Each structure stands twice: as C-alpha cells, then as structure tokens.
Amino acid sequence: MRLQLALNVRDIDEAVDYYGKLFGATPHKRRPGYANFAIDEPPLKLVLIEKAGAEERLNHMGVEVFDGAQVREAGDRLEEADILTAVEEETVCCHATQTKVWSHEPQGLRWEWYVVTDDAPDGEALIAPAAEVCATDSEDCCA
Predict the structure, then answer these.
(1) 141 within domain boundaries
(2) Cβ contact 102:140 at 8 Å
(3) CA separation (Å) from 94 to 42, 79, 134?
(4) What band does 123 get if pLDDT is binned at 50, 70 and 90?
(5) pTM for this model (two decimals)
(6) Tally of structural domains, the chain
C-alpha cells in the first residue's frame, strides 16, 4: 500500500524535472499532460496533472493498494461509515484500468482507494488525454 498525491501543475515538463530530482526517480508513466512516479521510499504514488489554470494545486489524495479485495474492504468500511461517495469497477482512468472507491471529506478534499488492474489498457489512444479528462468538474478519473 502507498499513499497517492495528485497535484495540478502549470507545466508538466517543469514539474517532472523538479519531482524527479526531489525524489531521485524517473516517471513510471508519462503521457501528454500527465506523469506519475511510483516511488518505493517513501511509499508514494505521485501523480502530476497539467492543468495550468487550476485554482487548487491539490487535485486529490488516494491510497493505492495491490489487491482488489483491499478496495472492496475499503468500500465496505466507507459505506458502513456513511462516507462512500462512488464506486468504479474496471474504469479506464489516468491511462490505466482501475477499480476504486471514492470519499469526499467535509471540506471537499477527494480521496480514492484504488487498485490498478491494467497499467497499459488496449485502446488507450482512444481515451482523452489526462489534461482534457481532468479539466472537467466531473467525479470521473482524476478530475
């Protein structure tokens, strides 16, 4: 399990350069307007989303797990606590297929608990680039 931090950045190249140096790492995945780092130490999935006009730097937080059962357990716990916002099964988001549950804290911060089931889904080219997907106000993906 590792914590996920998704940030809106004004310039993806500048951000990748900086965070690569900060963590001594190279991106795990890089697409137009999108990059993520899968950092072992500290255990962190750092997601960078190019969104130059974003009012907030923090896009959302998450917990990446490596087993679908852990997502279901989190969903059950959130539902029992009456803080479950959404459930997504095998959805293509941020250039990967994921199963996830969402919760929004009282001040609006969005949290996802998720597992990547396919890191490079077929037909990915048909999916809108992350910068377009994430520019919406929908609850989908890394919006």
Answers:
(1) no
(2) no
(3) 22, 25, 9
(4) low
(5) 0.80
(6) 1
